[in-house]
Design a protein that fits this description.
single chain, 206 residues, OB fold (Dihydrolipoamide Acetyltransferase, E2P), seven-stranded mixed beta sheet, 4 helices, globular, CheW-like_dom_sf, CheW, chemotaxis, CheW-lke_dom
Length: 206
């Protein structure tokens, strides 16, 4: 029944360095590793195996006639990547954009049709290792988000982290919307560049 925190170079407290897939791999690639993040004071987590990299919130291009949980699209090394506003996806009020706001790039879908998708969160915390025997079933009531979005509750000392089921949060229905976003995106988007912040939107004061 072990439970350990794994150190990683994650962008905490407004740190400007984007985390690459290689950096995440250095923290571990075990199926019991989870990337934890904050969204409106709650702690959530995605399985690390689906997380590709983490970016500071920058220039996001709006796409008309999309669901309100689609924040827009970014140009990630020449690829159009839709960005989901996770708060809106959960039916919550959209969070204020601050210097800690991040976009987590995750990979979703079946093996023959994998897609990269950005997920907008308030801040990224750390990578944790949580053993299976430390994960409890999702509660039947009392959660702020839909019960089917929750894979389980990871026990952390006297607290819990909500482990999300990304295949439910970003379901097959949303995958169709993702492809539509790509099709409707402008032909030329400003490219995300880790070495040049000139194209990023100025975040609000946190």
């Amino acid at each position: 029944m072990t439970q350990t925190n794994t150190k990683s170079s994650l962008p905490v407290k407004g740190q400007s360095t984007a985390v690459t897939a290689a950096g995440l791999a250095a923290a571990g690639s075990d199926e019991n590793q989870y990337l934890t993040f904050k969204l409106q004071s709650e702690t959530y987590a995605f399985g690390i195996l689906n997380v590709k990299e983490i970016l500071e919130y920058g220039k996001i291009t709006k796409v008309p006639m999309m669901p309100d949980f689609i924040q827009g699209v970014i140009n990630l090394r020449g690829e159009v990547v839709p960005v989901v506003n996770l708060a809106r996806r959960f039916g919550l009020k959209a969070s204020e954009i601050t210097k800690r706001t991040c976009v987590v790039i995750i990979e979703i879908g079946a093996e023959e049709a994998r897609h990269e998708l950005g997920v907008m969160v308030d801040s990224v915390s750390e990578v944790l290792e949580i053993e299976d025997d430390q994960i409890r079933p999702a509660p039947g009531f009392g959660a702020r988000i839909r019960n089917d979005f929750i894979r389980g509750m990871g026990k952390l000392n006297d607290d819990f982290v909500i482990i999300l089921d990304q295949d439910k949060v970003l379901s097959v229905d949303e995958l169709a919307a993702v492809q539509q976003v790509r099709d409707m995106a402008p032909a030329h988007l400003p490219e995300e560049d880790d070495d040049d912040d000139s194209g990023e939107a100025e975040p609000g004061k946190g």
